Amino acid sequence: MTKKWDSNSHDEREALLGFLHNQREALCRSVYGLTDEQAALAPSASALSLGGLLRHLTAIEGNWTGILQVTGTPNGVAEHLASFQPGGSTVEELIADYRRAAEATDAAFLAIPDLEQLAPVPQGVPWFPKDVESWTARYILVHLIEETARHAGHADIIRETLDGAQSIELKAAAEGWPESDFVKPWRKPAQD
Fold first, then answer.
1. In terms of residue numbers, what domain contains 65?
2. How many other C-beta atoms are found inside a 10 Å radius of the C-beta of residue 134?
């Protein structure tokens, strides 16, 4: 996720990768300023934690990149369910793993000649359709955007439940925006 994607690009692939990049960054910002322990908390009726979401989306990027490149089979049910847990990793490790997976995904999409390239649907995966033989690279990329955006939204709710921080406040803090009438950058609460 080191490349700065141009969201105004007229190239479809670059524009779609730019949308994916923005959603990834929103997810990464959700852990801004948190401890490893806070990132592992599941503060709502859901079992989701911010660390678990980072680990899950790291696995998802790897799964879909493997499908695109026809080099791997997605994780099974047990591995899929386990991917929602931070697994004892630190926030720093989770973000580093996610960024590496994102870079591999970006490279895979940039390496294919055409977004109409077909990838066979892996068989025996319970959540994949049984009546579809293949997906286009475009479908896979749009699905990754959808999946990442869904979980970035989950991350917003979890973070707000943890300490009241909202996405725009976290972005302002992470990017060093000055305080304004529009937004006050998030600040770590004072310790008693």
1. 12-175
2. 12
pLDDT at 48: 92
Amino acid at 80: H
The residue type at 52: G
Residues ≥6 apart with Cβ < 8 Å to 114: 137
Q: Structurally, how many domains does the chain consist of?
A: 1
100 belongs to a structural domain: yes
Sequence letter at residue 36 = D
The series of mean pLDDT values per 10 residues for the chain, 192 residues long, is 60 93 96 95 90 96 92 79 89 97 96 95 89 96 97 96 94 95 90 62
29 part of a folded domain: yes
Question: How far apart, in whole angstroms, are the C-alpha atoms of residue 50 and residue 164?
Answer: 14
pLDDT given at position 1: 45
Query: The domain spanning residue 58 has which CATH number?
Result: 1.20.120.450
Assigned domain for 24 exists? yes
Q: Give the burial string for 54-64 (b: 16+ CB within 10 Å, else e).
A: bbbbbbbbbbb
| Helices 50-69 + 12-29 axis angle, to 10 | 160
Using an 8 Å Cβ cutoff, are 176 and 55 in contact? no
Does residue 90 lie in a domain region? yes
The SS3 assignment for 17 reads helix
Q: What pLDDT score was predicted for residue 173?
A: 95
